Amino acid sequence: MTRDAPLSLEQRIARIEAIVTRLESDRLELEEALSLFEEAIVHVRDAERVLRQTEVRIDRLIAEADGSVTMEPVRDPES
Amino acid sequence: MQDDLFARSGRQPGSGSVRRGPAGWAPGREGPASYPVSAVNAMAKDLLEAGLPMMWVHGEVTGWTRHAKGHCYFTLRDERSQLRAAMFRLEAQRLPADPEEGMKVRALGRVTLYEKRGDFQFVVSALEATQEGGLWRLRFDRLRAKLEAEGLLAPERKRPLPRFPGVVGVVTSPVGAAFQDVLRVIRTRAPWTRVVLSPARVQGDGAALDIARAIHTLARSGLADVVIVGRGGGSVEDLWAFNEEVVARAIAASPVPVISAVGHEVDVTIADLVADLRAATPSSAAERAVPDGATLARELDRSRHRVQTALRRTLATRSTALAGATAELRAAGAAIVYSRRERLVTIANRLDALSPLGALARGFAVPLDADHRILRDVSAFRAGAAFRLRVRDGSVGCRVTDTERAAPSDSP
Description:
By secondary structure, chain A is of the alpha+beta class. Helix content of chain A is 49%, strand content 15%.
């Protein structure tokens, strides 16, 4: 498990799926099984926290004359 | 009579008014009247233009040529006659495609005379093919064939969509219904998804270039995991920007998968063909782009149960092995010297300590480092280091104050 940038939802779910597969198919050492279990639970909880978010963040891109790209937030009229 | 003619023409070569004079050509002086060529052509031109209204003419196109300046020249014909025709740049540039040899068309224009050459010709202001789909179809088919030849439409070029995109890029009009439709779906299904709009005009002059630029801008931003390009339904002309080559090439150049969402099912556009996925409407594009939150939540819950079940099974297997070892140990007890038995009991206890569901419930705890590794030896604890103690119903943050190694005989 990395402690660098927070994992994306996609990465978390991929990791959960990999752990489920390993736990279910491999005969693991107890120590490793426990450690994988705990990692999976952390990812499940974090993923669930992401899913609970209710407000869509919207930005609008602006192509600047010098070729760079900037953006400004757009207020979601519905939220 | 002649005077009448000149009076009606109203225009003469070289001057704006009728020139009368003794210079040899004025009628009614010496002998029969004679006119310069330019005057005859001017009179004929005026007669033709005044006598024949603007009209539609249908026939077959032959000898179509487009000059460098953009003017087009061709001949319209039927079984018996031919009519030389010209379509000038301003009108010709509005044509979706140059018609093919022998193509049946109808053209709106006026008959006139090209004075300089004395050519009788039909000056066309609008031209359309009378067959199915017309020139638009022709243009579509030509571009499609070109892109196909380059391999841009090949099925193996289609990229899979990300299952859980963090950011969805949307290229459409900021004021159109399409953007609101996309937002509504994302809000309902996956509100944690970020939306990045790259605005573009989606119809009218310059729309294609605008859409292509917006796709490139999104690519340069590097933000999106998947892109939706589209607009709501409309007429063939309204949707035409999505049939332009610049848009097709921008989609093909996108570093992330593109979902096209142009109008309704019946209108397949070039953008649809180049895109990684074609959706019938902006709403269905958004549905394909993001997962359904409710389904995902159920799947996560299922995963939680599966890892719990799998761990319980592993523990059960290990506990059985442990029980077996303990029984063996007891049976063999008499034959084994005490110190040796002591050591085996220690091993058994250690194994037991690793079984969290049993051992943790009885009050044992397992120290874990930040990576969830079990700290099994004194050497794994550094003075001052933080670790967590896993107990029956959770974990506790701890810090090492001091360590002490047990007598060597206790080590397995």
